[in-house]
Amino acid sequence: MQKLKRNRKAYTIGDIPWLAITFGIGVIVLSIVGQIVGDVKTSQTENSTAYNISHLGGQGVLKMANWMPTIGLVLGAVIVIVALSVLFVFKRQ
């Protein structure tokens, strides 16, 4: 338990661009993978094993993509909290 507390990392104002870039890359990767899976699925015959696998893969990508608005909201909240905490730290000094 002590090891977990020691290894915690707080976000700093310098981490904000990397958080936003990581989120953006995640959205782009999901959209490209979704497009590829959809293209593969259309080239397969229905009810074949490959078709079923690509169909389930597409559903998995869609489920992950459905979480992106929630992740974006949390990321936005982290950015606001970090910005406000930095503002208050500078104000107290």
Helix-strand blueprint:
Blueprint lengths: L1 H5 L9 H27 L6 H18 L1 H25 L1
Helix pairs in contact: 2-3, 2-4
**Overall body shape:** rod-shaped
Task: Return the average pLDDT rounded to an integer.
Answer: 85
Rg estimate, integer Å:
20 Å
Which class of secondary structure composition applies to the elements?
mainly alpha
Helical residues, percent: over 70%
The number of helical runs is 4
Number of beta-strand segments: 0
The total tally of domains equals 1
Series of H and E elements: HHHH
In whole angstroms, how far apart are the ends?
A: 33 Å
**Assembly state (oligomeric):** single chain
Biggest β-sheet description:
none
Low-confidence stretches: none
User: What portion of the residues fall into strands of 2 or more residues?
Assistant: under 5%
What can you see in these coordinates?
The protein has 93 residues and is mainly alpha-helical. Helix content is 81%, strand content 0%. It is built from four helices and no strands. Helix 2 packs antiparallel against helix 4 (68-92).
Summarize it.
81% of the residues lie in helices and 0% in strands.
Features:
single chain, 93 residues, mainly alpha, 81% helix, 0% strand
